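#lab-general

N.A. 3:47 PM
ok so I finally got the sequence cleaned up, no stray characters, all 160 residues accounted for. can someone with queue access submit it? mine expired

B.Y. 3:52 PM
send it over

N.A. 3:53 PM
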Amino acid sequence: MADTKDELAGVVDLFDGLTRDELEQALVELAFKQGKEVEREAFAAEIERAVEAYYLVETETGGGGERDAECVLVAGPAAFPTVPENGEDLPHILDVPDRELDREGLGESVAERLREEARTVAAAGDTDRAEELLDVSYDLEAWAPVGTDDVRETLDRAFE
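B.Y. 4:20 PM
back already:
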């Protein structure tokens, strides 16, 4: 089982992107390979925390052909994807379709999410979360071709 947010990102990164159900199934398979007993439902909260912390981000695939657009998770800007023990076996165990992801559009949508959250955090004066988001703003610029100077300016208001 993935024990850190970076390992969750590592599992997702093995496939370029996974739906929440696919990620939960991958984690169940990984726990089994590691000889651990877990309940699939326990993963939902861990996945949500990783999304909240920008280790995983959600995007919609383009769909096309016989597939409809679907929401998938990809390794986010705060992550240093790390493949957990036995994780390299997952692509041989799970049947996950190839997906085309719009990486440029993904960067823009994550930047917009960060801007919205920065405005909320600044208005509330939540300095702890503002510090976390400052780090994410720099990570995001390295992860995608987006600028986040405006985010940092907004977050500065939380410290006033």
